[in-house]
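Q: what sequence does this backbone want?
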Protein backbone atom coordinates (compact mmCIF):
# COMPACT_ATOMS: atom_id res chain seq x y z
CA UNK A 1 0.00 0.00 0.00
CA UNK A 2 1.29 3.44 -0.90
CA UNK A 3 2.13 5.94 1.83
CA UNK A 4 -0.55 8.40 0.72
CA UNK A 5 -3.12 5.64 1.19
CA UNK A 6 -1.64 4.03 4.31
CA UNK A 7 -1.36 7.17 6.47
CA UNK A 8 -5.06 8.20 6.30
CA UNK A 9 -6.14 4.60 6.82
CA UNK A 10 -3.86 4.21 9.84
CA UNK A 11 -4.97 7.50 11.42
CA UNK A 12 -8.60 6.42 11.07
CA UNK A 13 -7.78 3.00 12.59
CA UNK A 14 -6.07 4.62 15.55
CA UNK A 15 -8.96 7.05 16.08
CA UNK A 16 -11.39 4.16 16.07
CA UNK A 17 -9.25 1.98 18.35
CA UNK A 18 -8.74 4.77 20.89
CA UNK A 19 -12.25 6.17 20.49
CA UNK A 20 -10.84 9.57 19.54
CA UNK A 21 -12.91 11.91 17.37
CA UNK A 22 -11.35 14.13 14.74
CA UNK A 23 -12.19 17.07 17.02
CA UNK A 24 -10.37 15.46 19.98
CA UNK A 25 -7.38 14.52 17.81
CA UNK A 26 -7.19 18.14 16.68
CA UNK A 27 -7.04 19.19 20.32
CA UNK A 28 -4.40 16.59 21.21
CA UNK A 29 -2.19 17.51 18.27
CA UNK A 30 -2.83 21.26 18.34
CA UNK A 31 -3.84 21.00 14.68
CA UNK A 32 -6.92 22.29 12.94
CA UNK A 33 -9.73 19.88 12.16
CA UNK A 34 -9.38 20.97 8.53
CA UNK A 35 -5.72 19.94 8.43
CA UNK A 36 -6.59 16.55 9.93
CA UNK A 37 -9.52 16.13 7.54
CA UNK A 38 -7.20 16.84 4.61
CA UNK A 39 -4.85 14.10 5.81
CA UNK A 40 -7.66 11.64 6.47
CA UNK A 41 -9.31 12.38 3.11
CA UNK A 42 -6.04 11.91 1.19
CA UNK A 43 -5.86 15.57 0.19
CA UNK A 44 -2.49 16.08 1.87
CA UNK A 45 0.38 14.01 3.23
CA UNK A 46 1.61 15.04 6.68
CA UNK A 47 5.17 16.18 7.26
CA UNK A 48 7.31 14.16 9.66
CA UNK A 49 6.80 16.69 12.50
CA UNK A 50 3.03 16.54 11.93
CA UNK A 51 3.10 12.76 11.92
CA UNK A 52 5.09 12.86 15.18
CA UNK A 53 2.35 14.99 16.75
CA UNK A 54 -0.28 12.49 15.64
CA UNK A 55 1.79 9.59 17.01
CA UNK A 56 2.33 11.44 20.30
CA UNK A 57 -1.44 11.88 20.63
CA UNK A 58 -1.84 8.09 20.47
CA UNK A 59 1.24 7.35 22.59
CA UNK A 60 3.07 5.49 19.84
CA UNK A 61 6.30 5.94 17.90
CA UNK A 62 6.47 6.56 14.17
CA UNK A 63 7.86 3.03 13.81
CA UNK A 64 4.79 1.66 15.56
CA UNK A 65 2.56 3.83 13.39
CA UNK A 66 3.96 2.22 10.25
CA UNK A 67 4.27 -1.26 11.72
CA UNK A 68 0.56 -1.38 12.55
CA UNK A 69 -1.27 -2.86 15.50
CA UNK A 70 0.28 -5.88 17.13
CA UNK A 71 3.67 -5.13 15.63
CA UNK A 72 6.37 -3.85 17.96
CA UNK A 73 9.54 -3.20 15.99
CA UNK A 74 12.88 -3.63 17.74
CA UNK A 75 11.44 -5.01 20.99
CA UNK A 76 12.14 -8.23 22.81
CA UNK A 77 9.23 -10.58 23.47
CA UNK A 78 9.08 -9.42 27.10
CA UNK A 79 9.05 -5.73 26.10
CA UNK A 80 6.29 -6.45 23.59
CA UNK A 81 4.26 -8.26 26.24
CA UNK A 82 4.60 -5.30 28.62
CA UNK A 83 3.36 -2.93 25.93
CA UNK A 84 0.44 -5.18 25.08
CA UNK A 85 -0.58 -5.15 28.74
CA UNK A 86 -0.07 -1.36 28.83
CA UNK A 87 -2.36 -0.92 25.82
CA UNK A 88 -5.20 -2.64 27.70
CA UNK A 89 -4.91 -0.41 30.78
CA UNK A 90 -7.04 2.64 31.41
CA UNK A 91 -5.51 6.02 32.34
CA UNK A 92 -5.71 5.41 36.11
CA UNK A 93 -4.15 1.96 35.83
CA UNK A 94 -1.34 3.38 33.67
CA UNK A 95 -0.67 6.11 36.24
CA UNK A 96 -0.50 3.52 39.05
CA UNK A 97 1.80 1.26 37.04
CA UNK A 98 4.12 4.15 36.17
CA UNK A 99 4.35 5.15 39.83
CA UNK A 100 5.23 1.56 40.72
CA UNK A 101 7.86 1.30 37.98
CA UNK A 102 9.42 4.59 39.07
CA UNK A 103 9.79 3.22 42.62
CA UNK A 104 11.69 0.22 41.22
CA UNK A 105 14.09 2.51 39.39
CA UNK A 106 15.21 4.32 42.58
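A:
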Amino acid sequence: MRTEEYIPKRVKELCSKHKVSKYRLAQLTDMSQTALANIMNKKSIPTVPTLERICDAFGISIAQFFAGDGMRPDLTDEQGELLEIWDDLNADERRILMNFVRTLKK
